[in-house]
């Protein structure tokens, strides 16, 4: 494991605070918190970002997400544990993450439209764009995975 190369939050605090502002917006926009973490975890799996995989796995567990749904996320299309809304969001997240394969196909857009309003779809797209940016920052700076601590869940008295 390589040492962390740089700390973007420390050396570019203005940009980091702008990204955190986007995160605050996303967590207040009305989309379900677990849905946001699921799509962030899935995009992080696609991108191979160990730090973000660790973070969103821990956040989902702290929020009460089941181990089964987390273990099955890499094969969500074949797993029966996800709602139609979640499946649409996961397909959208993958298509927006891997734009080199079809530039977000119309078929994926048509499949996600019935499950999200225009504002929700815009918010979902911003969430995917944000996690892709975070993945790239963590990967490029070699942020050490395993160090993240999930906040206490309100469901668990925290």
Outline the structure in words.
By secondary structure, this protein is an all-alpha fold. Helix content is 62%, strand content 0%. Helix 2 packs antiparallel against helix 8 (118-141) and helix 6 crosses helix 8. It is globular. The mean pLDDT is 94.
Structural class: mainly alpha
| Alpha-carbon distance between the two ends | 34 Å
Proportion of beta-strand residues:
under 5%
Put simply, the count of helices is 8
Order of helices and strands: HHHHHHHH
Helix content: 55-70%
Q: Give the strand tally.
A: 0
Q: Describe the sheet with the most strands.
A: none
Radius of gyration: 16 Å
Features:
62% helix, mainly alpha, 158 residues
Short summary of the structure?
The protein has 158 residues and is mostly helical. Helices cover 62% and strands 0% of the residues. The chain has helices at residues 8-11, 13-28, 33-47, 50-62, 67-71, 84-97, 106-112, 118-141.
